[in-house]
Write a structure and sequence with these properties.
- Strand 6 and strand 7 form a beta hairpin.
- Strands 2, 4, 6, 7, 9, 10 and 11 form a seven-stranded mixed sheet that branches. Strands 3-5-8 form a three-stranded antiparallel sheet.
- The chain is of the alpha+beta class and 244 residues long.
- The chain is built from four helices and twelve strands, in the order E-H-E-E-E-E-H-E-E-H-E-E-E-E-H-E.
- The chain is elongated.
- Helices cover 22% and strands 28% of the residues.
- It has one domain.
- Helix 1 packs antiparallel against helix 4.
Length: 244
Amino acid sequence: MKKNNRIYSLSTILLLLSAIFTVSSTNKKTADMKPIEFIPKEFNDVKLGYYERFRNPCSPGYPHDITDFLWNKIVINAPRKIICRIGGDTLIPVIPVCGAHIVTWRREMKYYDLANMFYIKKINAENWFTGEIVDKSENPGIPALPPNYQEEQRELEKERIEAQSYSEEELEEGQASGGFLNVNLMDYVEIPFEPGVYEIYLSFSGLESNRVKVEIVFEEDDSKKFKSNQMGAGVEEEDDEITI
């Protein structure tokens, strides 16, 4: 009975062992990686949407309810950094913005015709990209009108007309309402999603929020890097031979 001898160089064996270990560790790492990731990491878990109006760890002032301390003011928060991994799964552009606001009824009446708007531009750029925050649900539905709808509309119009004469000091008086905002800015603003540092703010009812900066970074997907490295690792070097 003949025994088959196969001869491998030491460098080949080491390369094979290294490849096995690297495949295992790379597969585990890439399985945990997402096409898009936010810093701070808490933004990865925020549920975004027009009707997602709940306080969360990314809301301004968290863990406190900042609306207890606001009056005719808007405050927003956004990730410091957005990491996008290209070459892997399909990338869906997302810029999370979490906000909180309190606005008096008088101010809402005076500026009822002003849309709720996002503003975004690259740092050092001149032109702003803007978009109105509206319900873009596929089937938002039309609620049934109350029996006294016409009467309520006439009363509302009277309040709006009266509010036009209010001074800035008078707009600070009366009742106020507010809440939270958790949306994807890219759902409302048509802007190229590309690397850079951006400035963002929100406006409504004649108010402007604070301005935040967000950096978008594109990185090559690690799984693609690994495949590329493996293609270039096929060159064998002469070394001591080992018989198996």
